[in-house]
């Protein structure tokens, strides 16, 4: 359930979507029929807001699912600017919210002080690194693990489809978190004898630019282009669709297969929706622990997911699937440690024969 009110305050300096009812700071026991309507949960998106069919939507969907199932009025905040995220978090803390999800993956840079001000509120940070607060959960995705596997897959599949061993990779805005995926994907491609053509758009919303960049990659021979550009990723898929056949993309978030069911052949999946749902459940049950909440390749928090389109899935040779499974097992066992930074990538290259 989500009741939406439009509230304007000078403190926020922006329109905020709010819904909720008064509650104690501690999670209430479940009501009859599984209702937990006294629990106050909020989610603050990034400045890009909902509708990206990627990170924000996936974060929101997991929390919304739990709220809908348990009769909770979920509060949604879509900030206009980055600074509104901190203002919103403070306002919700003042209002006594129990559980606040913040979608911005650099939130750890400024949330420690806010968490200290509102010790009775639990803050959930994706890609977080605050682990010394009793009221902060930092979700840590093993981006390097899944990136490595996806890089190996992209290079192998690109070559199989006749595009050589250099697939494309289109990112949004360069930042340390996305670079974890960049360098691990580069390493995975190198591991199987390939390379990666990396381009950053400088935007998570510029669909035309993403389409232009990806189209150029396809035109130069690539058969696979991986998209890590938020809402702009749609441009990559549109570029693949502009060709009659033989051009495919790799998605992200929870797969995005519905956006381009004939062209997204596989995806680098972060199951943030499932993680957020589980965090809501654990919080309500009183079993949620603060600190690091890790999502790995081994526990399914991150994964390479093949297209549910049977025709596309059959296009992938079994021997490539077998190679990818073997590589994933080596990552899980620690035999392969995928790099996360440029420096680590350089060291990794020195180990290759």
Descriptive overview:
The strands form 3 sheets. Strands 4-3-5-6-7-13 form a 6-stranded parallel sheet, with helices on both faces. Strands 9-8-10-11-12-14 form a 6-stranded mixed sheet, sandwiched between helices. The chain has a two-stranded antiparallel sheet with strand order 1-2. The protein is globular. Residues 1-34 have low confidence and may be disordered. The chain has helices spanning 55-69, 82-94, 111-117, 143-160, 176-191, 207-219, 233-241, 272-285, 310-315, 318-333, 342-351, and strands spanning 5-9, 14-18, 41-44, 75-77, 99-102, 122-126, 136-141, 168-171, 197-200, 224-228, 248-251, 264-270, 291-295, 302-306. The chain starts with a strand and ends with a helix. It is an alpha/beta fold and 353 residues long. It has 2 domains: 5-141, Rossmann fold (3-Layer(aba) Sandwich), CATH 3.40.50; 143-270 and 302-351, Rossmann fold (3-Layer(aba) Sandwich), CATH 3.40.50. The chain contains 11 helices and 14 strands.
Q: Which class of secondary structure composition applies to the elements? A: alpha/beta
Whole-Å distance between the termini?
56 Å
The fold-level CATH name of the largest domain is Rossmann fold
Write out the strand line-up for the largest beta sheet, numbering strands in chain order.
4-3-5-6-7-13
Concise synopsis of the structure shown:
This protein has 353 residues and is α/β, with parallel strands linked by helices.
Question: Could you list some keywords that capture this structure?
Answer:
11 helices, six-stranded mixed β-sheet, six-stranded parallel β-sheet, Rossmann fold, alpha/beta, 2 domains, 353 residues, 14 strands
